[in-house]
Amino acid sequence: GAYPLYGAVILSPDQNLGAALGARDGSYGAAVDPAILGRLGLTIGERIKIGDAVLQIRATIMREPDAATGGLIFGPRVLISDQALAATGLIQPGALVTYRYRLRFPPGFDAAAWANSAQAAFPEAGWQIRTFGEASPSLQRLIDRVGLFLSLVGLTSLLVGGVGIGNAIGNYIAGKTSTIATLKCLGAPNRLVFAAYLFEVLGFAILGIAVALLLGALAPIAAAPLLSGVLPVSLRFAIHPAPLALAALFGFLTTLLFSLWPLAGIGRISAGALFRDTVDRARRRIPPGIIAATATLALGLATLSIVTAHDRTVALWFVGGAIAAFALFEGAGTAILWVARRVGRPRRPVLRLALANLHRPGAPTAQIVLSLGIGLTVLVAVALVEANLSHEVETKVPAEAPAFFFIDIQPDQLAGFDALVRATPGARFDQVPMMRGRITRLNGVPVEEAAVAPEAQWVLRSDRGLTYSASMPQGSRLAAGAWWPSDYQGPPLVSFDAALARGMGLKVGDTLTVNLLGREITATIANLRSVDWERLGINFVMVFAPGTLEHAPQTHLAAVYLPPAEEEDLARAVTERFPNISAIHVREALAAVNRIIGMIGRAVRLTALVTVGAGALVLGGAVAAGHRRRVYDAVVLKVLGATRGVITRAFLIENGITGVLAALVAGALGTIAAYFLVTRLMKLDWVFLPVPLLSTVTLAALLTAALGFAGTWRALGAKPASYLRNE
């Protein structure tokens, strides 16, 4: 273990890395990429010569913890010790050598602050300092976006769970009407009854929170065996009191906040309800104390969510969006009541009954619209964000990546290389001329004096690959300017990477100067390209127009696509015929990245299910609201001669009106919320995906209809006699 401070290199045959590389039997050891054995016809135990040192091959490298973040590897990998490297004699003045130092800091140390201070102390050093969060910038951006999504899931689960709590307690209090009325008949004041039920609710909450904390603490330990073979480092699971305490505080505050309003309904239940088996629906004002306590709890919960959030911007937007959603759906519920009162009396009894039910005294219409709307909005937003994030994850994995990059192909070797590749079954390749140059001036200003953003400075630190082309490279699209004609002959023009141009303050029409083998070439920026580097095809930061570089000394770069079964044969054939050509094997590094991206995609989908499950419970609770009243109404209508079919249709029309309106508003609001989350916070291109939107709304509507129908059917099954005896 502790390969370079973390993880372990897995070798075949299995052995300790230090032992494999140490001096034994008169030579140092080496661990090599398995491709070397196939290409050179070697076996474990045989010797190779690197520089002045003779090394014994003692193992093949099966896995490196940092394979996905090590950058481009020029040729098959060979691991040797420091002593063996010194024995090779390769480290000489003028040799191109890259050193990577790994630093391990104690827990709690601010590595990012240390990196910033080191860069500030040595601005001309030319080194790159990357913290563990920047080892692979593209992959890190993807992981950061997943982190934002997880924050969204946590916040939405909190909101949806709170709405569900409110529905559950409201239904519970409605079922305790007789008990509450009895207590009031015996002289119990509202305050005493309220306190009794509040403590009962808090008792349930404490029990539920305790069970949830236990399950949450044990879940990572239970998942350890599943993750041990997936991640390249060992995981140490422990019970951390601080996160558990924070989770308990969130659960307690959420329960208390969403409990107060339905508990205030106790004040609406009069002692007379004991003598008539329904609720006195005369509206009474919510006590000022309840309003003040609710506002205080809401402010406290919002503050806690923002302060403790992984990304406070997300939490702030979410709190604002939640307030707007509550206000919008409360207004939608009020609008339904207003329209239902003024629509008149339709001729059809079923429709007249359904509309009357919407605005009758005590109707739960506003509550159902609010609960359905909030639940559906959350489901739509999470579904669309998850779909866009999954789309991003899937597009990070190229549909077709090259098996090899071959570099240093000389111009007189192109014909032979072309024939060799074409003779390989299923193989094809793309090739471009390539030379290396260094950017020395931006708009005539030396790069040392130019103002360049830190994220773009890497392109100025050393030579960069560049090419020339009459056509735009695949995997690029114009972000500004226009591409030159295919037969262009004129002053030097260059196409530049758009993202780097922003960091360097460059635009179309500006100039940059490149030193190419001692010759200074100043070119005008004709256009800026957005480059899709993830597709792993051939592309360059700088592409020159024809007429400038054709006669400069150059080699060629080729990307070869071929079936895995043919890889070793082609690599061996190229090595034997063209010893100067280096092969870069892409598949291994890509496989490591794909494993990580695949895990990210599965994590995104699994966490989305948390919100879906919570949303389903809220939908069920919303439909269950007012069930006792529906039973009473059904009994009265049956006594008055209404058939089961009439009552069923009336109830379904009533639920349909509220459900359709809530779904329309929620679909629009959820889509808008998802758009802002994806484009403003996650910095992704928005892709409108109608299938997740329609499927989410449709499934939610079917679930709501099924639950509503089940509740209606139960109400229709009630026997009138038991109710009439209580009237």
Brief rundown of the structure:
The chain is an alpha+beta fold and 727 residues long. Helix content is 53%, strand content 14%.
Outline the structure in words.
The protein is α+β, with helices and mostly antiparallel strands and 727 residues long. It has four domains: 93 residues, no CATH class; 247 residues, no CATH class; 135 residues, no CATH class; 182 residues, no CATH class. It has 20 helices and 17 strands. Strands 1, 2, 3, 4, 5 and 6 form a six-stranded mixed β-sheet that branches. The longest helix is centred in the N-terminal third of the chain and has 39 residues.
Stretches where pLDDT is under 50 for at least 5 consecutive residues are: none
Shape designation: elongated
DSSP helix count? 20
| Structural Rg | 35 Å
**What's the number of extended β-strand segments?**
17
Mean pLDDT comes to 80
The share of residues in helices is 40-55%
What structural class do you assign from the helix and strand content? Answer: alpha+beta
Taking the sheet with the most strands, its summary is:
6 strands, mixed
Distance between the termini: 79 Å
Proportion of residues in β-strands = 5-15%
Number of discrete domains: 4
What keywords describe this structure?
727 residues; alpha+beta; 4 domains; 6-stranded mixed beta sheet; 6-stranded mixed β-barrel; elongated
